[in-house]
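Margin note: ligand = threonylcarbamoyladenylate.
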Amino acid sequence: MDTLIKKVDAENPDESVLKEAAEIIRAGGLVAFPTETVYGLGANGLDGEACKRIYEAKGRPSDNPLILHISDRKWVGRLAREIPPAGEIIMEKFWPGPVTIVFKKTDIVPDSVSGGLDTVAVRFPVNTVAMRFLALCDVPVAAPSANSSGKPSPTRASHVEFDLSGKIDMIIDGGACEFGLESTIVDVTEDIPVLLRPGAVTFEMLTEVLGEVRVDEAVFSGNAEKPKAPGMKYKHYSPLAEVILVDGKDSEEISRKINALLEKDNEEGIKSGVLTFDERAGNYQCENILRMGSENDFKEIGANLFKMLRKFDYMNVDRVYCETVPAEGEGFAIMNRLFKAAGFRTV
Ligand code: TXA
Ligand code: MG
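Resulting structure:
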C-alpha cells in the first residue's frame, strides 16, 4: 500500500489533514501520529480487527497489549470497570500528559487491545496535534510506538517512514517529539500503585502525590519471570549494534575503560562506536562518536537517545559503548531504556 505522509504545523495543525486521518481511523485503517513522548501507530481502539492490523504492521507479538489514547476523560468511565483513588489523583495531577494508567477493563475493550489481560492501559496525551486528531477520531485510539517491533521508538516522522512505509495508511508529520521516551505507566489495580515503566512523570513526582509506589521488577531486571507490562520482557529500544553500558567511578576511569575496549575492537576488526555526552566527546579515540546532549541535561538526553541509537544502525556500527546517568528523577527512565537496549549488560 502507499503510505500518505502529511506535514502539519506542531502548534497549529491543518484541520483538513487531521480530518482525513480521523476518517482513516474510523474506517479501520492505521495512522501514525506524533505525541509528546514518541510517535504512535493508531487504530480504532474499539475495533478489534483494526487493532490486529497494528500487530501485523509492527511485527509485534500479539500478547503485548496496546495503550488506548483519549482526548476526553469521559472515556475513562467507559473503558475502566473502576477508578481507584490513585487513578483519580494521577488523572487530576498529570493529565493531559506523559503518563499511562492501567485500570481493570470493561467489556467494550477488544481482546486484541488487552492482549488477553483483564486490564486496559489509558493515556491522555498533551501534544496539540495528538489532542486535535484524537478529538476528531471520537473513539479511543489504540497506539503502540510506531516502530517495527524491537527497534527504538520513533521520535521523528522519518523514523516511522523508515520502519513502516508501505505497511500503514498515513503518517502525520508533526515534527520532533518533546520528551523522546515513552510514557510512564502506572498500574492502579492493586492496593499500592505499581510503576511498570518509568518516564517523564517521574517516580519522585508520583510518590509525592500518591505516597507509596512500588517499582515492578522488570524495570531493572532482564529476568523478571512475569512482568506486569508484557512489553517489558521483550528486548526493546534496541539498535542492530550490540550495546554495552560502561560504568565507573568518574569520567576519567570510564574513558580509560572505553578507549581500551575500542583499541581491542580495532585490532579484531570490529567497528565500534561511543554514545556519550557533549562534554566528554573529546575523551575518545574513535570515528563513530554520538552525543546524547549535555551530561546534566536529562531532558535533552531523553529527547535524543532513540535518535542516536537509530543513527548507529544507519552507520552500520557493530558495537556501541555507552556512558550512563544516575538513575534518579528523569535519569531513571533514561537508564531503564539504556539497560534494555543493552540487554542489561554493563562493564
Ligand atoms: O508514550 C507512549 O506510551 C507511546 C505513545 C505512542 O503514546 N506508546 C507506547 O506504546 O509506548 P507501546 O505499545 O510501545 O508500549 C506500551 C507498553 C507495553 O510495554 C505494554 O506491555 C504495556 O504498555 N501495556 C499495555 N497495556 C497494558 C496493560 N493492560 N497492563 C500492563 N501493561 C500494559
Ligand atoms: Mg513500543
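The mean pLDDT is 94.
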